[in-house]
Design a protein that fits this description.
Layout lengths: L1 H24 L10 H17 L6 H19 L10 H13 L10 E5 L6 E3 L4 E5 H4 L5 H16 L2 H13 L2 H12 L3 H35 L6 H10 L13 H5 L17 E2 L2 E2 L18 H11 L1 H4 L11 H21 L3 H12 L6 H19 L3 H4 L9 H12 L2 H13 L2 H4 L3 H15 L1
Parallel strand pairs: 1-3
Antiparallel strand pairs: 2-3, 4-5
Helix pairs in contact: 1-14, 2-3, 6-9, 6-10, 7-9, 8-9, 9-12, 10-12, 14-15, 14-16, 15-16, 16-19, 16-21, 19-21
Length: 456
């Protein structure tokens, strides 16, 4: 057993060393490219099948499916999705492993679509389509955890949770007594009473969804126990989710060191955070009407862990099972790849400040990555354009106290800069790296654009 453990740890170490060496030697990074044509064909086929299978009495459900397919079509057209990319066979192989031990799963219905979304989440679309965000893959530790998540999402589909949620929503919207009570309360100026009625309705809907999450956990664990994967990794995965809102990389960012140059020295005033005022007073958020914990559709991770630990006590008592059914190097390579896909997605979706922040964090890990240095230049150019068009706050949020300290400082820094100052910072940041990365065409293109805005 000790020999197997040491071999497993050595395998992980070797894979991480391989990735780190690759990142430093091959400093240019190749992004994934999905097959959007094939993806759209699959979505169109699913839409025709599901909408044609519904009768006139299910018009609301049909509308829900059509809305889902509009969303998926939009995602493919905007290159948000990575279906058919080189990561696809890896994800599909995990699904096939699960299905081979669970003959009751309609595997032919399941389609996994990896996305560039940064949110650490996976989504069952209700028709067998499962979205896996790179932001989730980026936070997982092993293949077993990814397999458990797939089991959970498949369970949502086999339990018909989408149809049940829509039916429950329709029932609440058709409740004439509810509508009458709310309208009467508003007319009489009894706003707190009206909000209380709406609050109860919303809580009931969310409670229904939270029950569905526990059901998907339970059936998903049944699927998972039939596989050779290590069962305790399902619990370990939920433990990870307890801290999923924390940043993966929390390196201190020295903006002065990063953006200062001999030709354009850093100004200390750029780091001064001004108090954001609203009508003469410091702006604070209003006390919310609804308790935020009650609005969560997912139960607290501790509740989910306790539920699974109770119902699968005997199975979880063993440490048997394999953490990886495939080469662990493959998993770690895709986690590494997801770091860059996540940043690319943030930039494409114009979440520019966070894309820049992630670049600066990752440069602490991969300081010779020409992709990251180029992306810093692209983010600065995008922010500069936002300044020119008076849309800066759409790209860079105002600094808030709940932000991570480094991110808050970055946002404050960007809001302190004038367009002319940002143009100079952008150009000299890229210029200082010209000798090292001039072989890269993308880098040269961004350097040229930075020079253009600097000379204007």
């Amino acid at each position: 057993m000790l020999r197997a453990f040491l071999y497993h740890q050595l395998t992980i170490l070797c894979s991480l060393i391989h990735i780190a060496v690759t990142a430093q030697v091959d400093s240019s990074h190749q992004l994934l490219e999905g097959d959007n044509v094939k993806g759209l064909e699959i979505i169109e086929h699913k839409q025709q099948y599901w909408t044609n299978s519904l009768d006139k009495s299910q018009s609301v459900l049909k509308e829900a499916y059509n809305n889902r397919y509009e969303y998926l079509t939009f995602g493919f057209n905007k290159h948000h999705f990575l279906y058919g990319s080189s990561i696809q066979p890896y994800l599909d192989s995990i699904l096939l492993n699960i299905c081979s031990y669970n003959k009751d799963i309609p595997c032919e219905d399941i389609v996994i679509i990896p996305t560039r979304y940064a949110t650490p989440n996976a989504v069952s679309m209700g028709d067998g389509t499962i979205l896996i965000h790179v932001g989730l893959l980026n936070r997982l530790q092993n293949e077993s955890q990814l397999a458990w998540i797939l089991c959970h999402e498949v369970a949502h589909y086999t339990l018909s949770h989408l149809e049940k949620s829509i039916s429950q929503y329709v029932a609440s919207t058709k409740d004439r007594t509810l509508k009458k009570d709310v309208r009467r309360s508003f007319r009489k100026g009894q706003y707190q009473k009206a909000m209380g009625i709406l609050q109860k309705t919303l809580y009931d809907q969310r409670r229904h969804n939270r029950i569905q999450e526990l059901e998907a956990d339970s059936l998903g664990m049944v699927y998972f126990t039939r596989t050779p994967y290590q069962l305790k990794q399902g619990i370990e995965c939920l433990k990870l989710f307890q801290h999923i809102d924390e940043e993966k990389h929390q390196n201190p960012i020295n903006l002065k060191e990063i953006f200062s140059s001999k030709q354009y020295p850093f100004k200390e005033r750029w780091l001064q955070e001004e108090t954001i005022m609203f009508n003469g007073t410091t702006f604070t958020e209003e006390t919310p009407y609804f308790n935020q914990d009650s609005l969560r559709t997912h139960p607290a991770c501790t509740e989910r862990i306790d539920s699974l630990s109770l119902h699968f006590q005997n199975q979880l008592a063993t440490t048997a099972g394999q953490v990886f059914l495939q080469d662990s190097i493959s998993f770690h390579q895709w986690v590494y790849q997801s770091e860059f896909e996540l940043i690319e997605g943030l930039y494409q979706f114009e979440n520019t400040a966070y894309a820049l922040y992630q670049c600066l964090q990752l440069l602490e890990v991969y300081p010779k990555s020409v992709y990251l240095h180029t992306m810093v230049g692209k983010c600065l150019l995008q922010i500069h354009e936002g300044m020119q068009t008076h849309e800066l706050e759409n790209l860079v949020p105002l600094p808030k106290k709940e932000f991570d300290e480094s991110f808050r400082q970055l946002c404050a820094f960007m809001h302190q800069l004038r367009p002319r100052e940002l143009a100079a910072i952008s150009y000299y940041y890229m210029e200082q790296k010209k000798e090292q990365y001039s072989h890269n065409e993308n880098f040269k293109t961004i350097l040229k654009e930075c020079l253009h805005i600097y000379k204007k």
